[in-house]
Design goal:
- The protein has helices at about 20-50, 55-85, 90-110; strands at about 1-5, 5.
- The chain is mainly alpha-helical and about 110 residues long.
- The chain has one domain (about 20-110).
- It has a two-stranded antiparallel ribbon with strand order 1-2.
- Helix 1 (about 20-50) runs antiparallel to helix 2 (about 55-85), helix 1 packs parallel to helix 3 (about 90-110) and helix 2 (about 55-85) runs antiparallel to helix 3.
- The longest helix has about 30 residues, at about 55-85.
């Protein structure tokens, strides 16, 4: 929308997206991602014990450690979105979450062999 040549950002009264809901959507996305990560970790632990018990125990332990690290990162981000005033994207937390996701993926590939 323009007013005298100036572009006004969408707001609650302008019919555009509500900026206040963005934090809630992001928080819910982190919750969904955590749930998905938990399911993937559970499946990895289950498949870890299909072969040797000793190797399965080590692999399952590694998966659980990666899962706990991801939960810590996700919980901190969700708490930031709930408690603090408007925050920009937490680059460190996002990179950390991506790292733990790649670690779980690598463990899954190892377990499939």
């Amino acid at each position: 929308m323009t007013a005298g040549g100036l572009v006004t950002p969408p707001g609650p009264g302008s019919g555009g997206p509500d900026r206040g809901a963005q934090r809630e959507r992001t928080r819910l996305a982190w919750r969904r991602t955590t749930l998905t990560f938990t399911v993937a970790a559970g499946l990895a632990v289950r498949s870890a014990f299909e072969g040797s018990v000793a190797i399965g125990a080590v692999a399952a332990g590694a998966v659980v450690l990666v899962w706990i690290a991801f939960l810590v990162v996700a919980h901190r981000r969700v708490r930031e979105l709930t408690e603090l005033p408007v925050v920009g994207a937490a680059g460190g937390r996002l990179r950390s979450a991506a790292l733990w996701t790649l670690a779980l993926t690598a463990l899954g590939v190892v377990l499939l062999r």
